[in-house]
C-alpha cells in the first residue's frame, strides 16, 4: 500500500466518523462516560493513579496498541519528558527522563533510568529493548525510586507488566505487513493446565524488516530480524499462595547501526576521496539516508532468562503479603562492522562469523524479597535485594587494508619517514589492532522500607529508607596483536607527531597498553538514601502532595583505554590505570496536585520539580575513545502535567501531557573542572558545559493521544487513534558541539481500524512518523576524521496493515 493510498483511506474513515458526530453527542447524554479507575502498582500495591503521590505516566494495553508500542523505544510518543536513542550498537540504547540519562555506548556505566520487566531489573537500557509481548500496562515513574524497587535509579523507572496466565482459555494472533518489506507475526495462548491449580501462557513472535539506510558498498542497515518466545506457568499452591514461573528467549540477527555524514572537514575528506573517489558524501546529504562502509555490521544477539515470582498472603501481621522474585538472565551480543563510515577501508570490527569478533555479555542473578502489610492507618513495606552481575566485554578494532594510505595522506605523504615502512611491506598490517578483554563482576545488596501513615483521614505521611552496598571488581587484559609497532617506530623517528598522530598513535594501538598487559581495579561503596512525602486530600477528587527523595546510582569503571592527553619525548601517552568514577547522587523535590474533575470526566495532574545531581556521570566520545567525567553538579527543574478527558462525544477520549524541564550545567561547572581550554587541547569539549543544557534535554516535551470509537453498523465498530509527540530543540552530543543541534520537531503516528463489537477480529491501517519527519538521534565526532561529524538518524515514515484475531 502506498502512503498516498493509506492517507486517503484514513481521511475517508475520519470523514465517516465526523459525519456521525451528531449521533454520538446525542448518545452521550444517554450514557455519560467517566474517567476509568487507572490502576498502578508503582508503590508495590494496587492503587488508583490519583492516590499515588509521585509522577507516574500509566499506559494501558489498548493505549499501547493504539500507539504501536512494541518495545520501549516506541513508548516515547506517549510519554512527555521521555526520550530514547540508539547509537552504535544494540547495547547503545539510552532512556532519559526530564533530560537525565546515561549514554549507553559505554557499558561500564549503569543506567540512570532503570527498566524493570515483571519485577526483574535489566542491567542496562540496551539489554531491555525488544518485543515486550502481551502487555498489561507500562508505568513510567519519574524521579528516584530506591525505596520501592530492588535496584537503585537516579532519574526514574520504566516498569513493564506483561499479562499473566489465566484460567480461562484464550488466544490471540496478529499478522503485520509494511513498507521496507516488513513482516511480523505473533501468537498468544493462555488457559488452564490443571483446573483451578495450574495455568499457562505462551507468547511467540517473529519480525523482519529491511534496513532504512541504503549503504554504498554494502547491504541496507538498521534492519529488523528476530524471533522471541516467552512461556509462563502459574501454580496456585493454595488459596493464599501462588508462584509464576517465566522463561523467555530472543534471537536477533540484525544490522546496526548506520550513520550519515552531517559535516565534512576539508583535510580528511580530500584524503579519503583521493584514495576512493566518492568515499563519502561530499557535500553531506543526510536526508538521503545513505551510509557508507566496507564491512558488514551484522550483530547476533541472544537474550534469555528464567524467573520465579512467589506471592503469599501470610497468616501473620494481619495477612502480610510476602513476595519473592528470583531471576537468572544472560544477554550476549557479537559482531562488528565498519567503524569509519567511508568507502576507504580504514578501521573496522571483525564480522560476527569471524574467528574473533567483538562481544558484550551480561550474566545476572537477582533476588528480591518484600513483605508488605497494612492496618487501619499504616501501610508498610520492607524489602531486601541482592544482585550478582558478570559483565564481559571483548573489544576488537583493527586496521583495514587502506589504513596506511589514509594515514599517509593525513601526514602529507610523509608516513614512511615516520614508521620506516618497508618498500613492499606494511607497518599497520590489515586485520591487526586492538584485542582487549574487560571482565567485571558486580555484587550489590540493599535493604529498604517504604511506609505510609495516615495522620488524619485526609493527611498522610510517607517515609522510606534504603541502605545499599556495592562491590565491583574489574580485570582488564590489553593486547595489540601487532605489538603497536607502527606507533613505536613513528615515535622513535619523530618524538612529537602532531594532530594526525592521534590516528597512528592513539589509544587503540598505543603499545604502552600492550606492554603493561593487564590491570585490576576494585571499587567498594555504601550509601544511605530515602524519601519523605506528605499528601493531603482536600476532597475525594483533589490530592496535593510534597516530597523529597535522595537517589543513588553506583560508581564504576570506564571500560575503554584511557591515556594522558599528550605524548612527548618519543614515548607513547601514558595509560591511566585508574578509570573509576564516582557514584551519582540526586536530591529531588516535588510539589504536586492530582485532580479528578467535572463528574470524573477530566483528570488533571501537575507537579513542580527540582532535582540536583551530584557527580553526574557524563560519557562523551571524541572520535576514538570514550571519556567519563564526574560533573560536580547538574540541575533539572520544571513542571510535569498530565491531562485526560472523556469528551461529551461518545467514544472520543483525549490524553495529553507536557513536561517543561530546564536541565543544565551550572555556570560554576568550568571552574570546578579546571577551566579546560577549547579544542583541540580539550577534545571532550567540556568548555561548552557551563550554563548549557545537557544533551538530549529538550526544554519542552509534549504528547497528545486522541482515540475515537463508534459503531458503524449493529456489529461493526470503527476506531481511529492519533498520537503525537513534540520536542523543542536540543543538542544531541555530549560535548554540546553546535553542529550536533537538533531543531524542534513533532512525530505523529496514526492508526485506523475496523472490527466487530466482540473484537474477534480487527483490521488496521497504520503509519508511524506519518509526515516523514527527519531528525537526528545523536550526532558524534566522525571516527578518525578530525573536524568531521556523523549522525544516527531516527526512523523515517513506516506504514502498513495489521490483522488481529482473538478467540
List the helices and strands and how they pair.
Blueprint: H1 3-19, H2 21-30, E1 39-40, E2 47-48, E3 56-60, H3 61-67, E4 82-86, E5 93-97, E6 100-101, E7 113-117, E8 120-122, E9 135-142, E10 156-162, E11 170-178, E12 182-194, E13 198-209, E14 214-216, E15 224-238, E16 241-255, E17 260-263, H4 266-275, E18 290-292, E19 298-313, E20 321-335, E21 337-338, E22 347-349, E23 359-374, E24 378-399, H5 403-410, H6 415-419, E25 433-454, E26 459-477, H7 485-493, H8 501-504, H9 511-516, E27 518-539, E28 542-553, E29 556-557, E30 580-581, E31 584-597, E32 602-621, E33 626-646, E34 652-664, H10 669-672, E35 700-713, E36 716-727, E37 730-731, E38 741-742, E39 745-755, E40 761-768, E41 776-781, E42 789-793, E43 798-806
Parallel strand pairs: 7-10, 14-18
Antiparallel strand pairs: 1-2, 3-9, 4-5, 5-6, 7-8, 9-10, 11-12, 11-43, 12-13, 13-15, 15-16, 16-19, 17-42, 19-20, 20-23, 21-22, 22-24, 23-24, 24-25, 25-26, 26-27, 27-28, 28-31, 29-30, 31-32, 32-33, 33-34, 34-35, 35-36, 36-39, 37-38, 39-40, 40-43, 41-42
Amino acid at each position: 500500500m502506498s502512503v498516498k493510498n493509506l492517507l486517503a483511506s484514513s481521511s475517508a474513515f475520519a470523514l465517516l466518523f465526523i459525519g456521525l458526530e451528531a449521533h454520538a453527542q446525542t448518545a452521550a447524554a444517554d450514557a455519560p462516560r467517566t474517567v476509568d479507575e487507572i490502576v498502578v502498582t508503582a508503590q508495590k500495591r494496587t492503587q488508583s493513579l490519583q492516590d499515588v503521590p509521585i509522577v507516574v505516566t500509566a499506559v494501558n494495553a489498548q493505549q499501547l496498541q493504539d500507539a504501536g508500542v512494541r518495545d520501549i523505544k516506541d513508548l516515547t510518543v506517549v510519554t512527555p519528558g521521555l526520550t530514547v536513542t540508539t547509537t552504535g550498537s544494540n547495547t547503545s540504547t539510552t532512556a532519559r527522563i526530564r533530560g537525565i540519562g546515561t549514554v549507553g555506548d559505554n557499558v561500564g556505566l549503569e543506567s540512570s533510568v532503570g527498566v524493570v520487566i515483571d519485577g526483574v531489573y535489566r542491567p542496562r537500557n540496551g539489554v531491555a529493548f525488544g518485543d515486550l509481548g502481551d502487555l498489561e500496562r507500562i508505568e513510567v515513574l519519574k524521579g528516584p525510586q530506591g525505596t520501592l524497587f530492588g535496584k537503585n535509579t537516579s532519574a526514574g523507572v520504566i516498569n513493564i507488566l506483561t499479562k499473566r496466565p489465566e484460567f480461562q482459555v484464550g488466544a490471540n494472533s496478529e499478522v503485520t505487513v509494511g513498507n521496507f518489506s516488513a513482516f511480523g507475526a505473533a501468537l498468544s495462548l493462555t488457559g488452564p493446565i490443571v483446573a483451578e491449580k495450574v495455568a499457562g501462557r505462551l507468547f511467540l513472535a517473529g519480525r523482519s524488516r529491511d534496513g532504512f539506510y541504503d549503504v554504498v558498498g554494502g547491504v541496507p542497515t538498521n534492519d529488523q530480524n528476530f524471533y522471541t518466545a516467552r512461556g509462563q506457568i502459574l501454580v496456585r499452591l493454595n488459596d493464599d499462595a501462588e508462584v509464576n514461573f517465566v522463561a523467555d528467549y530472543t534471537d536477533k540477527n540484525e544490522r546496526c547501526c548506520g550513520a550519515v555524514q552531517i559535516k565534512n572537514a576539508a583535510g580528511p575528506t580530500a584524503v579519503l576521496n583521493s584514495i576512493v573517489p566518492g568515499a563519502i558524501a561530499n557535500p553531506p546529504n543526510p536526508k538521503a539516508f545513505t551510509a557508507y562502509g566496507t564491512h558488514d555490521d551484522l550483530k547476533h544477539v541472544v537474550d534469555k532468562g528464567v524467573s520465579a515470582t512467589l506471592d503469599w498472603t501470610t497468616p501473620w501481621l494481619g495477612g502480610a503479603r510476602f513476595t519473592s522474585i528470583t531471576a537468572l538472565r544472560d544477554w550476549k551480543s557479537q559482531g562488528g562492522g565498519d567503524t569509519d563510515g567511508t568507502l576507504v577501508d580504514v578501521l573496522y570490527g571483525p564480522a560476527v562469523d569471524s574467528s574473533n569478533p567483538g562481544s558484550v555479555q551480561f550474566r545476572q542473578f537477582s533476588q528480591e524479597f518484600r513483605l508488605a502489610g497494612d492496618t487501619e492507618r499504616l501501610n508498610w513495606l520492607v524489602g531486601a535485594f541482592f544482585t550478582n552481575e558478570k559483565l564481559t566485554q571483548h573489544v576488537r578494532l583493527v586496521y583495514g587494508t587502506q589504513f596506511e594510505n589514509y594515514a599517509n595522506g593525513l601526514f602529507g605523504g610523509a608516513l614512511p619517514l615516520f614508521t620506516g615502512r618497508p618498500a613492499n611491506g606494511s607497518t599497520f598490517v590489515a586485520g591487526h589492532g586492538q584485542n582487549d578483554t574487560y571482565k567485571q563482576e558486580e555484587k550489590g545488596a540493599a535493604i529498604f522500607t517504604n511506609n505510609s501513615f495516615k495522620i488524619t483521614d485526609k493527611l498522610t505521611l510517607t517515609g522510606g529508607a534504603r541502605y545499599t552496598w556495592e562491590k565491583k571488581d574489574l580485570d582488564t587484559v590489553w593486547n595489540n596483536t601487532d605489538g603497536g609497532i607502527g606507533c613505536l617506530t613513528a615515535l622513535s623517528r619523530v618524538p612529537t607527531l602532531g594532530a594526525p598522530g592521534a590516528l597512528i598513535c592513539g589509544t587503540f594501538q598505543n603499545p604502552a597498553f600492550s606492554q603493561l598487559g593487564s590491570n585490576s581495579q576494585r571499587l567498594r561503596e555504601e550509601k544511605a538514601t530515602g524519601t519523605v512525602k506528605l499528601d493531603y486530600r482536600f476532597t475525594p477528587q483533589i490530592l496535593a502532595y510534597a516530597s523529597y527523595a535522595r537517589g543513588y546510582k553506583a560508581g564504576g569503571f570506564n571500560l575503554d583505554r584511557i591515556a594522558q592527553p599528550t605524548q612527548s619525548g618519543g614515548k607513547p601517552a601514558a595509560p591511566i590505570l585508574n578509570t573509576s568514577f564516582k557514584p551519582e547522587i540526586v536530591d529531588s523535590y516535588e510539589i504536586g496536585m492530582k485532580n479528578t474533575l467535572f463528574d470524573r470526566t477530566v483528570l488533571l495532574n501537575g507537579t513542580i520539580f527540582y532535582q540536583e545531581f551530584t557527580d553526574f556521570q557524563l560519557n562523551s566520545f571524541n572520535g576514538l575513545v570514550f571519556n567519563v567525567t564526574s560533573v560536580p553538579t547538574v540541575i533539572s527543574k520544571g513542571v510535569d502535567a498530565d491531562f485526560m478527558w472523556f469528551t461529551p462525544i461518545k467514544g472520543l477520549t483525549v490524553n495529553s501531557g507536557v513536561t517543561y524541564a530546564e536541565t543544565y550545567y551550572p555556570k560554576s561547572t568550568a571552574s570546578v573542572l579546571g577551566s579546560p581550554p577549547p579544542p583541540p587541547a580539550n577534545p571532550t569539549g567540556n568548555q561548552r558545559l557551563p550554563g548549557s543544557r545537557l544533551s538530549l534535554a529538550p526544554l519542552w516535551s509534549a504528547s497528545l493521544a486522541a482515540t475515537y470509537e463508534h459503531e458503524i453498523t449493529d456489529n461493526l465498530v470503527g476506531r481511529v487513534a492519533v498520537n503525537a509527540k513534540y520536542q523543542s530543540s536540543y543538542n544531541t552530543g555530549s560535548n554540546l558541539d553546535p553542529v550536533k543541534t537538533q531543531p524542534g520537531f513533532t512525530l505523529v503516528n496514526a492508526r485506523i481500524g475496523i472490527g466487530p463489537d466482540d473484537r474477534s477480529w480487527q483490521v488496521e491501517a497504520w503509519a508511524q512518523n506519518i509526515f516523514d519527519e527527519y531528525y537526528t538521534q545523536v550526532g558524534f565526532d566522525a571516527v578518525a576524521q578530525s573536524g568531521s561529524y556523523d549522525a544516527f538518524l531516527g526512523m523515517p515514515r513506516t506504514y502498513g496493515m495489521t490483522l488481529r484475531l482473538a478467540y
